[in-house]
Amino acid sequence: MVLQQLGGSITRALQQMSNATIIDEKVLNECLNEITRALLQSDVQFKLVRDMQTNIKKIVNLDDLAAGHNKRNIIQKAIFNELCKILDPGKPAFAPKKGKPSVVMFVGLQGSGKTTTCTKYAFYHQKKGWKPALVCADTFRAGAFDQLKQNATKAKIPFYGSYMESDPVKIAVEGVERFKKENCDLIIVDTSGRHKQEAALFEEMRQVSEATKPDLVIFVMDSSIGQAAFDQAQAFKQSVAVGAVIITKMDGHAKGGGALSAVAATKSPVIFIGTGEHMDEFEIFDVKPFVSRLLGMGDWSGFMDKIHEVVPMDQQPELLQKLSEGNFTMRIMYEQFQNILKMGPIGQVFSMLPGFSAELMPKGREKESQAKIKRYMYMMDSMTNEELDSTNPKLMNESRIMRIARGSGRQVRDVMEMLEEYKRLAKIWSKMKGLKIPKKGEMSALSRNMNA
Ligand code: GDP
């Protein structure tokens, strides 16, 4: 995802600025120009970028910066807040309730990943105990019903559609009625998408919406849509009451900035992102962790959710307890590496793990990252219990380092590299100290603390 490059460029611009001895208006402007360029190159709409730059200038007080406050933090915080503002319209999307029938209609251009996303959305909720059903009201694209049928069958989700009927409104109404009778609580209506913004598509969408009265209309958008995103999204919003956005193909090489613009255009929150072709490559979207990942700040809440998914329940409290005491030992790092190897797909987890910014562990280099982790673990296998459980970096003197290198068949510089990695992570993870240990569902509160 090129948004990661955007994150990298912003981080570099901030780094350059904080290297300057005196931060004056010129240095700040250079930094902001650099960031502006990065945003425009990522296809974020010009007006949004300009507004963002103006706002940051208003927020950042040069006198404060001169007074020796942490300049980088102040500006990074301002950028963080501005990016969050673009992505967060300030009102949550309608949330369907389990046990109560809701109709959710999907709209978007052809090829955006709408049909795939309908099934992912259904599958996601089914796993959480909902009773979803899929209705194919796409009578325009030959094969649309077959595709939905195939996906639905694979996920064991009931579906409705027709090979004969050409009126999408009729199918949508029949499907919704039928599944309401069958007590389905999440009735998902897939509509036609077309290549261009044909008037007929919008009229059809309006009619399906009027007839089925959806509780939520989700606009599905391909992350590669580029500069056209703002206008496209606005056109959809003007025709139907778009209430949420799902951005697909975030795993690809799209610039992704168009997606930010589209969100601004619909003034609706992004609720999920698609990260692959498979049914479970679908993630809840949360603005703050996303933006912190983008800025290389790490995503605590995503990481903690993963911990809850992967680390056995009985080991979770112990780990979190240790972290909250600020004891980030080598042993904890070792255990985390073990978890990461278990969690996979590794790239996804790495970009969430605080300290492992996207720049350091780039997507597409998962194999290398995995090999590196394994290498570190082999070296740690040659460490004594005292070394593994210590939080004192001074303990690792020359003779210990040489012993570990010999024991693991590696070079001294490899051990040094591993120790540097430990120090870096320990510094970042030390932020966990004193924090309330979160339970599942309390992750966003933790994330807010970490990102503050
Ligand atoms: P529709 O025309 O909007 O209904 O689009 P489809 O659901 O048929 O998807 C178009 C193509 O995009 C298919 O090949 C999907 O497998 C693919 N696709 C959908 N979502 C994603 C995603 O999140 N990542 C990737 N890599 N491919 C996706």
Task: Tell me the CATH topology of the largest domain.
Answer: Rossmann fold
Adjacency order of strands in the biggest sheet: 3-2-4-1-5-6-7-8
* CATH class division of the largest domain: Alpha Beta
Shape assignment:
globular
Pairing-aware structural class of the strands and helices? alpha/beta
N-to-C order of helices and strands: HHHHHEHEHEHEHEHEHEEHHHHHHHHHH
Number of helices in the DSSP assignment: 21
The CATH architecture of the largest domain comes to: 3-Layer(aba) Sandwich
Please tell me the total number of domains: 3
Set down the secondary structure blueprint:
Elements: H1 3-19, H2 25-41, H3 46-59, H4 62-66, H5 71-87, E1 102-107, H6 114-127, E2 132-137, H7 144-155, E3 159-160, H8 168-181, E4 186-191, H9 199-212, E5 216-222, H10 229-239, E6 242-248, H11 257-266, E7 270-274, E8 282-284, H12 287-294, H13 300-310, H14 316-324, H15 330-343, H16 346-350, H17 366-381, H18 385-389, H19 398-408, H20 412-429, H21 443-451
Parallel strand pairs: 1-4, 1-5, 2-3, 2-4, 5-6, 6-7
Antiparallel strand pairs: 7-8
The site of guanosine-5'-diphosphate has 17 residues, from helix 6.
Domain SRP54-type proteins GTP-binding: 269-282
Subunit structure: Component of a signal recognition particle (SRP) complex that consists of a 7SL RNA molecule of 300 nucleotides and six protein subunits: SRP72, SRP68, SRP54, SRP19, SRP14 and SRP9.
Main location: cytoplasm
